[in-house]
What does this fold into?
Amino acid sequence: MNQHQATENEYSKLVDIWARSVRQTHDFLKDDDFKTIKSELATYFPHLDVRVWTDDEKIIGFSGVDGTKLEMLFLDPVYIGKGYGKQVVTSLVKENNIQFIDVNEQNYSAKAFYFAMGFEEYSRSEVDDAGRVYPILHFKKSTKEK
It folds into this structure.
């Protein structure tokens, strides 16, 4: 698997991946919130280290990092559950020293995934960063060996 810095020309592709991924993994998200987030998503990209992850020139997904925090990781749904997410997170932990990740409380598969990747919950917020009523779990890299 390869990665490269996202370019502005790729933003619409990344938003499309986000939309398809979220439709599969965030069944709790209200339709109006989905539309709002989708319309705003690309405005966040310039403020993050956004990487496009590929395999044989096919885009698997993308990640967005701010310092030691993974702000976003979305895979094209056809690649979810095939080990790509694990490869991305392992790479980001190694290369960017990722220590923190926020997860929607209702996203049970993401909670289980990050726990299996060696993260542990240390805090909870009642609302997301935009003040929407989607509780957020704050994870940090565990100091315990798994």
